[in-house]
Amino acid sequence: MAQLSTFRQALSQSRRPLILAGAGLSAASGIPTFRGAGGLWRSHDAMSLATPQAFRADPARVWAFYHYRREVCLKAKPNGAHDVVARLSGRERAKEVFPSAVDVPTFVTQNVDGLSIRALEEGEKAPIEMHGSLFRTRCTSCGTEKPNFNSPVSAGLVGTEDLSKEYRAVPLEDLPRCQERSCGGLLRPAVVWFGESIPELSRISQHVQRADLVLVLGTSSTVYPAAGFASEVRSRGGKAAVFNLEGTLGSSEESDGDSDWFFRGPVEEMLPWALGIKSSSL
Where is the protein situated, by its record's location annotation (predicted)? Predict the structure, then answer.
């Protein structure tokens, strides 16, 4: 397969590789996506709950939605694609795949499910979570942000994740509260909601500007600014490889618009195959 040969040559020559992941990375773990048609939660358009305005108007309902998502993600396990990327975040494995690289690949994930973090072992570099994480909270009073993998995130939310039961509003005082210096402020999920800026965008842009090869995993690259990263790398002479079940407009079996290589199929299968990594070696 000609494209596999040229792709692996690019891997061996890359000095500053970048990995960008979307929802397809977590598909095999059973993580649902609420974007687009059919993205409903308790008959609500889930995207309408992912806004600062929705949280101000009804924090209990928004927290119930995010509690449900947290519980789904906590029951899920990282899949083979997460494991491959995690191993590439360690120096030893990264050098086998990217022998010319000056450091381990920079990994940027658009996912908020926390699975890429959970796949890591000691010494492996954490990803940049572009849109935040379901498993971080931010105080609306003092601004303190902390990891939080508690299940449930607060006792008041127990049972609201059961979609077979009628929705039960949680009293404001029973929602997650800040424990920092007896602050007691209302916590919110530390995710980037619609209408909010991306705190990590400047840092990510610096990595994109330096990258000479980008691997795009499980995203059709339709949502900006991430959708423009591959074309930006290529505009400066870099290369881009896309791993996804579906291509974007103008894609074919071996090309996907703004990419040099297109590997169509489940990311958890195509990625280790293209990289030449056997699952038993993970």
Answer: Mitochondrion
